[in-house]
Write a structure and sequence with these properties.
243 residues
Length: 243
Amino acid sequence: MQAVILAGGAGTRLRPLTLEVPKPMIDINGRPFLLYIVEELKKYGIKDFIFCVGYLAGNFKDYFGDGSKFGVNIKYSVESEFLGTAGALKLAEKYLEDEFFVLNGDTYLPIDYEKVYREFKRIKRMGMIVLYDNSEKVAEENSAVDREGWVVAYGKKEPLKKGDQLIEVGVKEAADYKYIDAGVYVFKKGILGLIDKDKFVSLEGDIYPELIKSRELKGFIISQRYYDLGTLERLELIRRVLK
């Protein structure tokens, strides 16, 4: 399997740490955070990576190169302007296989990725999203599923940004939200047909609603919490977890 890492954001909430280093490359116990993600995926045989980068893209290339010294293969898709989570996938289209994982470059999730992929193959749909059951109450729930596990509503409330510019605020619908988007997805390449080229398009605000309407987005429920670099407090937690 192939994994796309979304790592093009400006990391404004972690400034001044991110003024010279992109958020996924922040030092965690002597190593960049992104290396922990790569090594976690390697455990499950995932060695083909596409890094979707933009802000301070040279930092990724200088450290990882083509990936050979880490036992993986890395290609880079570089944004000249912020295109959003879906726009970044569209830009990387020429590198993508028929099916691929997508991971947020600022989130660490130690789960069985083979099991996730087997379930994705079984359902034969366009997309699947890993959803945390929030058993540790780490954040506000933003996803709802029906009895069969199909995503029926997605209402991420965090502001969407284009670089450091606020462009949209998601508003929750009335739904039974019990789960949190854990930053791991699996898609068929056909999803790119829903994404306009060279435009700012978000998975959260633009693509998921379309997949939900056509019953093409399945939830994969987990109890293993995720860890992200969203704030300085969470950064310190990750340093303890990954010691």
